[in-house]
């Protein structure tokens, strides 16, 4: 689904001076980096194999986003981005899922904003596509929150 061909910055030289866009892409990279780390932990805490599998699929998308943004950052700046975990991973499944839902939902707007600011069709397409993925992720996390899996102990005591 991703556009894998590389693009040439020389065609978009005005971007080289757009430090604000670069700062935002750096932030997007760190957000993806943090999600990749935290979703690994969240998947381990998932109450069912099905939810764990969904979270690992979402994590795969975040890895693709990370790689695409990393490539864009390198092309714009000629240097590697600094990787920093932007927030600590939550220690419970419920708290982690809630934060994930909010982060995903907020990221949709953040990425569409980056796409709007950029004049580069490759950057626009990459961030628009990522925004659509994040919207999909947000819906999954909301589903996990609103349909909590009943644990086996609770089910047993009802008999
Ligand atoms: Fe992402
Ligand atoms: Fe996401």
Automatic annotation (TrEMBL):
InterPro entries: Ferritin-like_SF, Rr_diiron-bd_dom. Gene3D superfamilies: IL-4 antagonist (De novo design) like domain, Immunoglobulin FC, subunit C. Coiled coil: none annotated. Pfam families: Rubrerythrin (PF02915). Residues 99-147 form the Rubrerythrin diiron-binding domain. It comes from the Bacteria. This is Rubrerythrin. It comes from Priestia iocasae. The lineage of its organism: Bacteria, Bacillati, Bacillota, Bacilli, Bacillales.
């Amino acid at each position: 689904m991703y556009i894998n061909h590389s693009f040439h910055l020389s065609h978009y030289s005005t971007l080289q001076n757009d430090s604000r866009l670069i700062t935002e892409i750096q932030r997007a990279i760190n957000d993806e980096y943090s999600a990749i780390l935290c979703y690994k932990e969240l998947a381990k805490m998932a109450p069912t194999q099905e939810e764990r599998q969904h979270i690992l699929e979402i994590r795969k998308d975040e890895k693709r986003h990370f790689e695409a943004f990393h490539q864009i950052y390198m092309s714009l700046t000629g240097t590697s981005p600094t990787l920093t975990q932007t927030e600590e991973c939550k220690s419970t499944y419920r708290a982690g899922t809630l934060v994930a839902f909010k982060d995903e939902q907020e990221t949709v707007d953040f990425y569409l904003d980056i796409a709007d600011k950029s004049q580069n069709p490759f950057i626009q397409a990459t961030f628009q596509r990522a925004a659509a993925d994040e919207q999909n992720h947000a819906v999954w996390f909301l589903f996990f929150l609103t349909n909590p899996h009943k644990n086996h102990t609770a089910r047993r005591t009802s008999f």
